[in-house]
Amino acid sequence: MINLLLPPALITALEGVFALLITASLTLFILGKRYPQKNWLELKLRIRTWWWIVACFSLTLLGNMTIALVVLGLVSFLALKEYLTLCSTRTADHVVLFWAYLCIPLQYYWLGIHWYGMFIIFIPVYVFLFVPMRMVLVGETQGFLKAAASLQWGLMICVFCLSHMGAVLALPLLTGIGKAEHGPMLLFYLVALTQLNDVAQYLWGKSFGRRKVSPKVSPNKTLEGFLGGALTTSLLGWLLGPLLTPFSPLHAALAGLLIGVMGFIGDIVISAVKRDIGVKDSGRLLPGHGGILDRLDSLTYTAPLFFHYTHYLYY
Description:
Largest sheet: none
Radius of gyration: 20 Å
Number of strands: 0
Strand content: under 5%
């Protein structure tokens, strides 16, 4: 069921995103005709995947809350599945993995019934205590600590942190403050700034990058890219804030800065995980981008922090 009562500002913002995609597709088509000798395959795959991502994200914003939570729950499922595929799990833990996957619909169900108290402690407290208990009942002690820690970390990053996108969407309903239509606008603001921050850091790094921030973890990340991207995102946050959020100009700029800094940290943390495992990409689910964690790495940090920032100041 499509929600046709969304604010005009959000509709306009989505139209702007689709206009960008149409422009990019037309530009690529023209370049392909003009320079056929060049290999445009990766760029073509990237743009094609962006169409799918934007279509799914639009469905999340335009549909009702149930559809949105189902889509976001599926995102958490795919992220956790990808993470567990990368991490070597013990054969003895297959039953425990079933319980880990079962946490996903429950985590989003708490949002669906607006039970914020359970949403915020379910995985950090109850699942945290339950998982090792269930592993003990399996009876395998070899590699117990590593297996338990890896699974707990995956649940926190892929389910708890990413589920805060749903919490941002449902924030007015969770608190009873503001209108329900403000949730999709806040979620658009969060996701748009996080993705634009990735682009801005890439462009600043390519243009002016000299000093490596963490060469062993992410050799292409530079201090100039980080600072330029964070400041650009702060400026974009300030510009978009009055249209999509209840933020004052100062709070909007600080929200942009928060997303810029934390998005960078989320990116290199997931990069460290991939370096530890010995892979370049987390998967191949998104052609031209890699895996779903490659695309959502920044959001694992920005989503929960943006939620609490907004919750504390306005809801």
